[in-house]
Amino acid sequence: MEAVLKNLASTAELLAVASHSAAVEQWDERTLSRAFHWAQYCEHVFFRFHNNQAIRGAAEKQLQLTAQRLRAALPDHHQVAFSDLFRCRHLLLIGLLNNPKLPGSIMKILFDTKNPVDTKDNEYQDVTGFCSRLVQYKSACKVLRPLTDQSLVGADAEVQGMMLMTRLSALLGQGSDACRTEHSLDSVLQGCEGQEEHFCLVIAAALLTPEDSPTTIASQDFLLNWLQKKHNVLQGMCSALHTTLLGNLAKKHVKFRGAYTDLVKRWASDMEYSVNDGVWFQTHRSPTVSFQKLSEHFQTLFEACPADVEQELTALKISDGNFDISGLSIWGDLLSVLTK
Amino acid sequence: MSQVLDIQEMQFWLDKVVSWGQADSPDTQRDSRLHLGRLKEFLQQVLTHISNTSSTTEIMERMPFLGQFLGRLCWNSYITADDTSRSLLFQCLWGLYSEHPSTAVERKANQWIQKVLCQLTTEEDSVAMPHLMNGLHVPPTEYHLKVLRKIVTMLQGSIGRSCSSLGNTNERCSCDSVLATSEACVPLVKSSEAAPLVSALLQRPVTCVKAALSEHFLDACSSAYSSQRLSLEEPAAVSLWYHSLSSLEEAVLSLLESVLTNTGSTPQKLEQLIAQSMLPKACAQHCSIFLVTNDIFRSILKQAEGHEPVKCLIQTFTSCFLKEMTVLQSQKCVSVKAFFPQSPQRLLVPLLTQPSEMPREAWRHHLNWLSSSLQRLTEEEEEDAGERSSTTRGYHTVFEAWFLLVQCARWVQAALQLLVSSGPVDAGPLLWLLTFYYHPTNRGHGRALQLVRAREAWSHLLSLSTAEAGPLPAGHLQSLVTLVSTQPQQPSQPPLLILSLLIGFTVFFPQSLSKSTEILQMVVGRSGLVDEAACVLCSLELRLNEGSCSSSNADGVHLRLKALQNTLTHMHAA
């Protein structure tokens, strides 16, 4: 273990040098490649031990000590947190590219544009063209992304949803307690502040991932339980997502259907009828839901499970007096829209 | 001064990149696509200009807007997605980078270049992405690669969906996206990540009027494929040839080149080369591909009519093509006639029928019929041509008949085999057929004269072969050597007709191997035509390999052929 901690400390030093020291002027292809290998090693260490509290704690402490020592020589240095190590190569890259002393020769290696076929025999193929490839991936995504606008979720949310599932499976598989897993999920949500709508898409994509294994089923179940506790997220999803997507979720997950039904029923019960305008409207909810939108939601649920919805609405209508006149019972009016 | 860039052109491109801005709007993409080729040329000029100038300070003085121009280009993802443009762009930036900056301008330029590249690599468009990825422990490079793969899979799926609105131009269908997708793929054809999408686009069945692929896309695929920067599976390559004439031409010409630079290779190798080109299969699948390929062969044959390797290539190619046709015909009904619209239709089926598909006893009748039909056809056309002095149509028909015979040259070998094995009986039509194969016209090739020489050679060969034991009759031998060594009309060409008669006799005539070897050694040795004889022997082997040799004596013939080949090899070495 000591050796691992020592290596982490050395790599933290390496990152500091790469970012702030004039020593990079002496770097060549070999140095660069070795630096990348060390950074990659730290990524492995991260994934191996990030759930092990004891080792993680020791590593954090080691990184802290190293940072203190480094700051004496390099005042601009920021500490590398253990939680950042999963993208250690990227940190190395950012450090290098922001270091004013970085020699042109190193940049040329990173932005090499030779055909990957030509670099096969290259000893340093992992670093050669690393940035060029990243630029290519990003550019290609930008060029092609507008063509996928017919997809309800979108490629980004779909990939993120899949990664969320992977992360959840890992957390649950490693025997983390539910509380810690929830905490992780909360912190992901916190990171998405201001982007809630996008986060709703990610959750939807995660829940729609094909259930190809017991771990996927367990992860989705965990996510559904979490969602039931997070009224804001659920409400956000039901307001923001396309009803087709909500319908797919309702068809696939009974738990989601239940939560969704409860939510739209709550919305419906908040409706009042304006005799003057002849319409149902909401008084104290923000943002408000129109009768039209509400009936779309019920239509979606009706398509997912016709018998349940009809039975429930009929019962509610009867409890309201079972009149066949519009404007008296929201349930009666919704039912008449559905059975039209 | 060639170093100075055209100021007007620089201004044009500067205006262009300013108008493109950073937005990846469809308009920007469309305009970028239209200008991509010209832009690459311009960047190349800029690069040359930069490398011809001694310092960055000097470049900046001459072209103060260059930095702005290159900087803005970095943010056009259509340009940075394209391998070549990105490479040129980066090279231009390196050109402006000073290893040892000596002035403030140069130091500033270095800083600026580093900043641009840093932003290009590390900036993310989406605000949520970095937070989300930190929470999920996914490094950016891995993330972007995954998204790219996802997008490619999604688009592959959406363009793969079949369209049912055949011919109905008003209905909206998934094909609307095919053109747009193919256009967006122009800068990505060399990217291995986009390869499945490129391949799916190429293979999309044309079921809808709206499913056309962009010309720019086809050109880009074609050039990437020929420079081996795009690797395609067989069906995708065939589709590319189907859609793009230039790429098909390139494939055929490259096959011709590889065959003709590999002369002297074995028949098996030739067949392998042809099969590897995937062209025979493509030809069987798409009549239009066959017609184009055949047109190229036609014109090559016209230029090199006596060139035996070209004839061998065409014959082997046709035979590979017919094999593929047989496979295909078992699946769907295809008419062979559509593939040979220019050939004399009367001769088509009789020639395309393989000798192995017919009982050996029927060969004589079949070959006599072929010979007399061809003879009549040439006589008619030559009479016509005599009457109308400047006609080409007549020769056209003769050429097409001859071209078909070259394609189906197994019958020529069958004629030779039959001629030799049946002795002096009824040799006229077979000799004529062989003469026609080597000397198709009377005017240019002196067919009539060649026929006389062939008869003469043949009778000498008969006399040599039927002579009593002992030394070979010197008179016949000498006459034969004289016939082989002189070639009237076309002195530059080897006397292939006489040589093939000689080889035919040594291989097929029922006589001892030692006698065959002796005749071959004598005639070839005295006339000095060892290489030419080896070549004729090789093309005979090729035809025998194609299964036209009757099975009972096939092994014997092959052994004899190998022995004779060895003899020639030793003579060559000696």
From TrEMBL, chain A:
Example GO BP? interstrand cross-link repair
CC annotations in GO: Fanconi anaemia nuclear complex
- The superkingdom listed in its UniProt entry is Eukaryota
Pfam families the UniProt entry points to: FANCF
Coiled-coil positions are none
Where does the UniProt annotation place the signal sequence? none
What PANTHER family would the database entry show?
A: FANCONI ANEMIA GROUP F PROTEIN (PTHR14449:SF2), FANCONI ANEMIA GROUP F PROTEIN FANCF (PTHR14449)
What's the name of the protein? Answer: Fanconi anemia group F protein
UniProt source species: Betta splendens
Annotated gene: fancf
UniProtKB/TrEMBL annotation, chain B:
InterPro entries, per the entry: FANCC
Any Gene Ontology biological process? cellular response to oxidative stress
Q: Name one GO cellular component term.
A: Fanconi anaemia nuclear complex
* Matches recorded under Pfam families: Fanconi_C (PF02106)
What is this protein's record name?
Fanconi anemia group C protein
- Gene encoding the protein: fancc
